[in-house]
Amino acid sequence: MMIGWAPILLGTVHVVQKNETLGGIAQRYGVSVSTLQAYNGIANPNLLYVGKKLKIPTGQVREVSYVVKKGESLGIIAKRFGVSATDLALINQISRPDLIRVGQKLTIPLSGSRRPVPPKLLDSSTLAKLDSIRPTSGKWKRIILHHSATPIDDAVNMHKVHLARGMKNGLAYHFVISNGSRKARDGEIYLSNRWKGQLDGGHVKKHSANQTSIGICLIGNFEIRPPTSKQLTALEGLCEYLMKRCNIRVNDVTTHTLFHPKHTVCPGKHFSLSGLHRRLVD
Ligand SMILES: [Zn+2]
């Protein structure tokens, strides 16, 4: 029985031009000569002809050698390594996939695109809440990070306190990330009315800065102890989301004290902005 062959889906195609060598082509695409040989069934790299179509694997491709054991089929082996049986047959020039033999040596490509997917930083209900609000286009230029300076607190209480202080819209921040004290769970992200209504913040001194700065407050006093790891994960997810949604660069994710050095130490000496920056990418 012949198995139908589908075209290889792992990369692009290069048509060999005059004076090109396999080494030169390999170098250009950042793969090894042996990878190209294996992918294209080329026994002798010196016998390359103009017009030959080469399959070029993309991404970081690692290869492993595998020796077929008793009772194994190409399908079983392909499944184990997370590649398709069709690709394995093509790469190894196997014309009869049903007739592989014990002891046969196979080249198995492990594509870079199969690296483990990074963990999701935001849970689906938070993501749904965030998605339900459309940020005002072009309004937000930066993210400013704060701590509450109170070890035990939550957004609802802070809202009341800020209202009592005479702030018209209450809670001065757009987001609050809980540390698990009071009624919220550790790492829970609270969206304030200012974010829902796309209103100016009230978290920095200058009115013009409040008009263009998203304020995120983490509950806790980070002069005394650092944020919880769940808070940091939530913060990373939230910053990543807002950067993408509002077109904000990593360097415009900053802290209250960097924004107003003489005015405050917020968010405290145990908060590491450089640590956050390392995890965020433009
Ligand atoms: Zn602050």
Give a structural overview.
The protein has 282 residues and is α/β, with parallel strands linked by helices. The chain folds into two domains: 11-113, Roll (Membrane-bound Lytic Murein Transglycosylase D, Chain A); 124-279, 3-Layer(aba) Sandwich (Lysozyme-like), CATH 3.40.80.10. It has eleven helices and nine strands. It has helices at 22-29, 33-40, 74-81, 85-91, 124-131, 155-164, 193-196, 207-212, 229-246, 256-259, 273-279; strands at residues 11-15, 53-57, 61-67, 105-111, 142-147, 175-177, 189-191, 213-218, 253-255. The chain has a five-stranded mixed β-sheet. It has a two-stranded antiparallel ribbon with strand order 1-2. Helix 1 (22-29) packs across helix 2. Mean pLDDT is 87; it is low at 1-9 and 113-117. Bound molecules: zinc ion. Zinc ion (ZN) binds at residues 146, 256, 264, 266.
Number of helices: 11
Largest sheet: 5 strands, mixed
Shape: elongated
CA radius of gyration is: 28 Å
Q: Which CATH architecture of the largest domain?
A: 3-Layer(aba) Sandwich
Parts with pLDDT < 50 across at least 5 consecutive residues? 1-9, 113-117
Number of domains: 2
The CATH homologous superfamily of the largest domain is named Peptidoglycan recognition protein-like
Report the CATH C-level class of the largest domain: Alpha Beta
Report strand order across the widest sheet.
7-6-8-5-9
Structural class: alpha/beta
How much helical structure, as a percent, in the residues?
A: 25-40%
The percentage of residues in β strands lies in 15-25%
Strand element count: 9
Query: Distance between the terminal alpha carbons, to the nearest Å?
Result: 51 Å
CATH topology of the largest domain: Lysozyme-like
Bound molecules: zinc ion
